[in-house]
Amino acid sequence: xxxKRRKDQIIAQILVLCREGASKTMIxxxxxxxxxxxxxxxxLLLKKDLxxxxxxxxxxxxxxxxxxxxxxxxxxxxxxxxxxNSISSEDQTRYS
Length: 96
Prior knowledge:
two-stranded antiparallel sheet; globular; 65% helix; Arc Repressor Mutant, subunit A; mainly alpha; 2 strands
């Protein structure tokens, strides 16, 4: 069974996708979320100035400079989490 994604992983996926600009529908399908869930994330990221809205025929979400900084921090946290998780897995097999 596949492990459930953490919120920080979902946020990072959204920020990466929105680097070039993305519609809400694109975010829903590419990040594999439903529309109500994606709205909660978009609202949060907009409030924190990690995303901006580009108006036009359809609304486009784009990662801001602050969003890029946050994304780099999220990548660092994910790397640490992954290394800790692999250590934990090694310990489990060692003591089984």
